[in-house]
Amino acid sequence: MLDRDGYRPNVGIILANARNEVFWGKRVQQHAWQFPQGGIKHGETPVQAMYRELEEEIGLSQAHVRILGRTRDWLRYEVPEKWSRADGRAPYRGQKQIWFLLRMVGRDCDVKLRGSGHPEFDAWRWHDYWVPLESVIEFKREVYRQALLELHRYLQADRRPPRTRGAQALASEPGAVGLDRLN
To answer: How many domains does one find in the chain?
Structure first.
């Protein structure tokens, strides 16, 4: 589903833990790291799409997170022609995204990268909020920068402690976690 300008509606998810580190996923069989994101299906609201993508891509449900904020407007990026799909319909230019900042209220062991039949990620880790943008594919970097800048204020304003994280979970060291440790 494309809008009249050739952009596919999409959601992006920045998931923060109690230490304000963010979920950083490694794409299956690639050396590319990114935030969870995915398309909005016909008839879905951005919030509904965000919860669906959260469950499909990292196995978390609504009970595992709390919404801290979202971008006010769509953030757009254009996909280079070499990655563009030509299917005879309206010209595909790229994606327009609503970004959500979520607080993880579940535990690290709740993350299940094989939650769907088509895993998006094969490893993940917690990363400093200000992820190194040079590690993001070039055409998405500006959208990531805009989303992180706009949503940072919600992270700073959130002073409520997560509901279910205990002292033991907070003491764990951040690091990459592979599929073999998650399932």
So the answer is: 1
pLDDT at 135: 85
| Domain annotation covers residue 2 | no
CB proximity list for 8: less than 8 A, separation 6 or greater? 1, 2, 39, 92, 94, 95, 96
Q: What are phi and psi of 25, to 5 degrees?
A: -105, 140
Task: Tell me whether residue 46 is in a domain.
Answer: yes
The Cα–Cα gap between 165 and 9 comes to 33
- Asked if 54 contacts 27 with a C-beta cutoff of 8 angstroms, the reply is no
Segments of the chain with pLDDT less than 70: 83-90, 161-183
Domain assignment of residue 105, yes or no? yes
Can you tell me which residue has the tokens 């016909």?
42
- Please tell me the pTM assigned to this model: 0.84
Q: What angle do CA 111, 117, 120 make, to 5 degrees?
A: 55
